[in-house]
Write a structure and sequence with these properties.
This protein is of the alpha/beta class. Helix content is 23%, strand content 34%. The protein has two domains: 106 residues, Translation factors (Elongation Factor Tu (Ef-tu), domain 3, Beta Barrel), CATH 2.40.30; 110 residues, Nucleotide-binding domain of ferredoxin-NADP reductase (FNR) module (Rossmann fold), CATH 3.40.50. The strands form two sheets. A seven-stranded antiparallel β-sheet has the order 4-3-7-1-2-6-5. Strand 8, helix 4 and strand 9 form a beta-alpha-beta unit. The radius of gyration is 18 Å and the shape is globular.
């Protein structure tokens, strides 16, 4: 499958292409699926870092369609990792539901990058949802021992079963059902975050694009947090 004009642009931006091979898949919930892969040389070539992601390519009505996915439990020595799919009606979800061992998935490494905050923050304030769950878990794994409050927006009843990697001694999870296009999450975070923002926080936001933009602006302008202590990346666009 060719990657069209998007692929050409990524090539110009020094994106590197890899082919992953499916080794297995598992149902995490009825709305969430984990697919395991061999990495096609990706990890040996690029190494790993927290919240590392790739652009995976899918076919959509005969045209290339790319989406970003965070690597789950990458193992450099074994050359393996998983990707997790929050299932909905789209080409990536259709592929994830139907894939079988031996199937391949093309992907481009371009755009990923994350450095753990230095000096280490006194508290993590994390806002995410099922689409960004792998990145949330990667972040929590990368900064062990730091107190963290996680606001996690849910869309399905089954999202209550999703495996957030919490350390019960240091982490608190606050689930927020999605309502009014993310407005309830915005209101909840604005009401609760200020009381936690006096301990040298690091704020990490990864929800739908509009919600992410609104909360990032709030953290930087209304709370006056330093730019380098607020990380924000929209993971999907609400239709």
């Amino acid at each position: 499958m060719g990657h069209g004009w998007q692929g050409a642009v990524l090539k110009l931006m020094r994106g590197k292409d890899f082919t992953f091979t499916v080794t297995g898949a598992e149902r995490v919930t009825e709305d969430y699926r984990r697919v395991r892969f061999t990495d096609g040389g990706l990890l040996a070539a690029a190494g790993t870092h927290p919240t590392m992601w790739v652009r995976a390519w899918f076919e959509n009505a005969g045209k290339p369609h790319q989406r970003g996915y965070t690597l789950v439990d990458p193992d450099v020595d074994a050359g393996t990792f998983s990707l997790e799919f929050a299932l909905h009606d789209g080409p990536a979800s259709h592929w994830a539901r139907a894939c079988a061992p031996g199937d391949t998935l093309e992907a481009t490494l371009q755009g990923t990058g994350f450095e753990a905050p230095e000096p280490r923050p006194g508290r993590l304030l994390v806002i995410g949802d099922p689409a960004s769950l792998p990145a949330v878990n990667s972040l929590l794994d990368a900064l062990p021992g730091i107190p963290a409050t996680v606001w996690f927006e849910t869309q399905h009843a089954s999202d209550e079963e999703l495996p957030v990697r919490l350390d019960p001694d240091h982490h608190e999870l606050r689930r927020v059902p999605r309502k009014d296009g993310g407005a309830d999450l915005v209101a909840r975070v604005k009401a609760e975050l200020p009381a936690l923002a006096d301990a040298d926080p690091y704020v990490w936001i990864a929800c739908d694009t509009a919600t992410t933009r609104t909360l990032a602006t709030y953290a930087r302008k209304e709370l006056a947090l330093p730019k380098e202590r607020v990380h924000a990346l929209g993971y999907w666009r609400a239709s």
